C-alpha cells in the first residue's frame, strides 16, 4: 500500500491528512506525519504543505531533513502547496534580503508573496486540466501566495504541464491587462510525478486535487515500469 507522508514541521499539514482520509476507499492511502529522516524513509510520496517557507526550510535544516528531502524528490512523487510550492521550485525570488534554502525538484522560478501586500488572500474558481468532473470549478484559496515567474524546464527533465490558470478578470486592474500566456497566471502545474499548486486545496472540502495526486502521480508512478 502507498504511504503518503505530509511534512509536519510547520503549517497546514493536519488539513492535508484530513483531506487524504476523506478520499474514497479505492484511492485512500496510508498517511504519515513526517518530522524525521526515518519517517520520510517510510513514505512512497510526500506532500509539503502551505505555511511559511523560510521557517519550514530552517526547521528542515535543523531536523537533518533537507538533504533527505532533496534526495526524496529525485525519485518519488512530491506535491507542494503554497509554501511547499516555493520549496519545490528550482529558483525563488524572495521579497526579503538573503536567500533561502530550497528543496528543488520542479524546474520553475517562483516569487514569494507574488501578488503583493494589497492582495493578501483571495478565492478564485478555476478550471483544472484533467480533473474529474472538470466542468465543476475548483474554488482555490490563495493566501500570500507565490507566483510562477518562469517555466524553466530542461532537456533532461520531464515536460511541464500547466493544469490551471487564474482567470485574468479576477486580477486587480493593474494586472488584468497582462498577457493570458504570462506565466504569472499559472497556479497549478505538474512536472513528471510532481505537482505544484500556489493555492491551498487542503483548506476547502473539495478533495479532487488530493484524489488527482494519489491517482495520477502516486499510483501512476508505482505502476510505471
Ligand atoms: N508567503 C508564504 C511563504 O513565503 C507562503 C504562504 C502560504 O503558504 N500560505 O512561505
Given helix and strand content, the structural type is alpha/beta
Present as ligands are: glutamine
How many domains is the backbone divided into?
1
Distance between the termini: 17 Å
**Biggest pleated sheet:** 7 strands, mixed
What would the average pLDDT be, to the nearest integer?
93
Shape descriptor: globular
Widest β-sheet, arrangement of strands: 2-1-3-4-12-11-10
Helical segment tally? 6
Strand-residue fraction? 25-35%
DSSP helix fraction: 10-25%
In CATH, the topology is named Rossmann fold
Count of β-strands: 12
SSE topology sketch:
Layout: E1 3-7, H1 13-21, E2 30-34, H2 37-41, E3 45-48, H3 53-62, H4 66-75, E4 78-81, H5 83-88, E5 89-93, E6 106-111, E7 121-126, E8 138-143, E9 147-151, E10 160-165, E11 186-191, E12 194-197, H6 208-223
Parallel strand pairs: 1-2, 1-3, 3-4, 4-12, 5-6
Antiparallel strand pairs: 6-9, 7-8, 10-11, 11-12
Structural overview:
This protein has about 220 residues and is of the alpha/beta class. It has one domain: Rossmann fold (3-Layer(aba) Sandwich), CATH 3.40.50. About 25% of the residues lie in helices and about 30% in strands. It contains 6 helices and 12 strands. The protein has a 7-stranded mixed sheet. Strands 5-6-9 form a 3-stranded mixed sheet. Strand 1, helix 1 (about 15-20) and strand 2 form a beta-alpha-beta unit. The two termini are about 15 Å apart. The mean pLDDT is about 95. The structure holds glutamine (GLN).
Keywords:
Rossmann fold; binds glutamine; alpha/beta; globular; 225 residues; 7-stranded mixed sheet; 3-stranded mixed sheet; 25% helix; 6 helices
